[in-house]
């Protein structure tokens, strides 16, 4: 079985340090809790932040949190820090 699922993420955003930031992602069909969030900085491999849509990977700061189910998901950074500048 081949699944063709399109993922649409919110566009690039700018924010100030200390702000709460939310990044959204929408799937073209329900994927249950099957969403992972990665952080990638230039020259580095992607780092797993969140799995099963809302489970925080061990060692990742609790400033990151994930939510959602089905087709709509959100990654939230509770208080933006300089080291959070990356692609998600």
TrEMBL record:
Q: What is this protein's record name? A: Ig kappa chain V-I region Walker
| Superkingdom of origin organism | Eukaryota
Q: Keyword annotations for this protein? A: Adaptive immunity, Disulfide bond, Immunity, Immunoglobulin
Q: Which organism is it from?
A: Microtus ochrogaster (Prairie vole)
PROSITE patterns under this entry?
IG_LIKE
Q: What is a single cellular component term in the Gene Ontology annotation? A: immunoglobulin complex
Short name of any one Pfam family annotated for the protein:
V-set
Ig-like domain location: 1-88
Which GO BP terms sit in this record?
Answer: adaptive immune response
């Amino acid at each position: 079985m081949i699944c063709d699922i399109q993922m649409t993420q919110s566009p690039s955003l700018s924010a100030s340090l200390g702000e709460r930031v939310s990044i959204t992602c929408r799937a073209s069909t329900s994927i249950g809790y099957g969403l992972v969030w990665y952080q990638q900085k230039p020259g580095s491999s992607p780092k797993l932040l969140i799995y099963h849509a809302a489970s925080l990977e061990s060692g990742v700061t609790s400033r990151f949190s994930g939510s959602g189910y089905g087709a709509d998901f959100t990654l939230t950074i509770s208080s933006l820090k300089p080291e959070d500048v990356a692609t998600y």
